[in-house]
Amino acid sequence: MSIPVFLLRLFYNLALVPAMRLALAAGSLTNPKFAARRAGLRQTYKTLRSLPSKKYRRRIWVHAASLGEFEQVKTIIAIVKKASPRIQVVVSFFSPSGYENLQGFDAVDAKVYLPVDSRRAARKFIKALAPDAVIFVRYDLWYNFLMELQRSSIPTILICATLNASSRRQARSLRLFTRQTYECFGTIFTAGANETEKFSAMNLHTELMTTADTRSDRIVEAVKQAADNPILTREYYRDDSLVLVAGSTWPADESILQAALEGLPEDLRRRLRIILAPHEPTEEHLQSLQLRFPTGILLSDLEAGLPGADSGGDAQYIIVNSIGKLLRLYGHADLALIGGGFGDGVHSVSEPAGYGIPLASGPDIERSPDAVALRDGGALTVFSSAEDLTDWLRLMLGDSDRRIQHGKIAADFINRASGFSLVIANRIISLLEVESYK
Q1: Residue 276: which H helix or E strand, with range?
Q2: Which of 150, 233, 392, 400 has the most beta carbons within 10 angstroms of its beta carbon?
């Protein structure tokens, strides 16, 4: 039974929003991420007030939860800016992982933190920003902001949209509230045909367009650039080495990897070189990795040429102690293990797939349409235990034909999904009434 929307709206505004604000304030006293967000939020309206306007014809607001989601919109922004450099792009984030690590992308004119989703904050923020068009990325949807955009008749689109059956938004009691949220968008660009079917079942009045994960376009670009701009510039690999990049890992992934490596025959284990890129390279996490893999070298030490980091092909492990480099690091890989499959859900499988390499992850992949498609196609192997991972490593290390076959399936998947950034960019350009890009 669905609860009436007005009751859900009251509960959301009178209970959930204040609780969220209180939790963030309390968390900022002990959690560095919450503290960083609170400090950055103080600059939001100062940044908006200082935006130059005379030299710009139009202004786009892009919202992404964090850096990973922002990758899905980067190519779109680049196309729009190339078509009309006088379009101003302002990006908002909810998470410090996006705000603090958005660097070296000149197509963005300003970045801010998004305030907590109260009706007052939504009105104030949108009035101060005054966007001509808005892009939300994937899933970080805020009811009051979207309702205010709809009331203000500001064109708003959602890209890379997915519907997860286990999401709280899909609860039967919340369906009317969820439907009203999605109907604030003029167009929803879905992440595939299966996702379009899910949205269609909601009987939305919003236009649905089947596209794909637009990160594919970014990945295709990165693959082309990786050979000319490698991160590892010294001789690290022996001629017979194979490289496994373990990306966006959590302790559960790393524990199973450690046990799986112990189960490999010695001759195969000696051939394997491993790049470990934890999802959150905090000091505590890095220390645990160095204890788990004591012969590991920090990437920053290797790049700086510090003493002890010059062992070249004799070093089996590189531990990545920064973020923002994983997409390029996959360019060094013969195999990839993607983290998150033993927690809230596997991280991006599309990034390593673009390099045409076999993939493996833990079992929690259902929230990622790309992961499901790659598993069904044979490029992604799902493991539930160290023994499963040992078997996969043994197969990939010992059978080059199988390794090449799995990698080709992965690369073909990404290449088929590319090109939709241009479609979405031209829709945005048409909303802004500027010349489209060919």
Answers
A1: strand 272-278
A2: 392
Say if 270 falls within a structural domain: yes
Residue 24 in domain = yes
- Tell whether 412 and 327 lie within a shared domain: yes
Secondary structure class of 302 (helix, strand, coil): helix
How many structural domains are present in the chain? 2
pLDDT digits (tens, 9 = 90+) for 264-293: 999 898 889 999 999 989 999 999 999 999
CATH number for the domain including 297?
3.40.50.2000
Q: Which pLDDT band, with edges at 50, 70 and 90, does 239 fall under?
A: low
- Domain extent for 106: 5-212+419-432
CB of 111 closer than 8 Å to CB of 129: no
Half-sphere exposure in the Cβ direction for 51 (13 Å, CA): 27
Of 164, 74, 161, residue with least CA distance to 372 = 164
| CB-based contacts of 106, cutoff 8 Å, min separation 6 | none
For residue 333, the 8-state DSSP code is: -
User: pLDDT tens across 141-187, in order?
Assistant: 999 999 999 999 999 999 999 887 666 666 666 788 889 999 999 99
Alpha helices in 42-116 (DSSP H): 44-49, 67-70, 74-83, 96-99
